[in-house]
Amino acid sequence: MKILVIRHGTTDWNDKNLAQGSTDNPLNERGKEQAKRMGKQLCGLGINKLYSSPLLRARQTSQIIAQELENEIPIQYTPALREQDFGIFEGVLRNDEQYQIEKHQYFKRFKNGESFLNVAARVYPFLDELIATSNDQDVILLSCHGGICRMIASYFEDLDNDAFASYFVKNCEVKSFEIKKMQKR
Fold this sequence. Notes:
Blueprint: E1 2-7, H1 12-15, H2 29-42, E2 49-52, H3 56-68, E3 75-77, H4 97-103, H5 116-132, E4 139-144, H6 146-156, H7 161-166, E5 174-178
Parallel strand pairs: 1-4, 2-3, 2-4
Antiparallel strand pairs: 1-5
Helix pairs in contact: 2-3, 5-6
């Protein structure tokens, strides 16, 4: 089984370097073009399952990609892939000093938001279930967000704190994870 993880296309808030979190922003024109190009690149990979965050930017990305794929695949929307809620820091500059301090306190919730542990508590069980209910031939695409891409990587890879903190996926970049299921005896 292969799981492909894509971060949504660019939004105006990405261009302005603002923390989006769970703010429901749409793709801008560049983001739509990125998704269309990526959809063409993903053709022929045999994607047979497609899951998306319910936030607009990820939904638009998955819908544009789905139109480019060779087979019509229904998109399944799941709150497990929704971006972390940054609480009072939604809309602040990503290089804001206090945001950076809060962002690197993994066990602490953002005020009126979520901690990384809250995010892991919804992403990890989703991945457990996805792997348990899929077969070795499945090629699954997950359309989500930068923080969720990081959390998914931490599920599949042994990331230390520094690697986790520096893990970054560009807009409309795809990461791939191969999963070999254990054969039952």
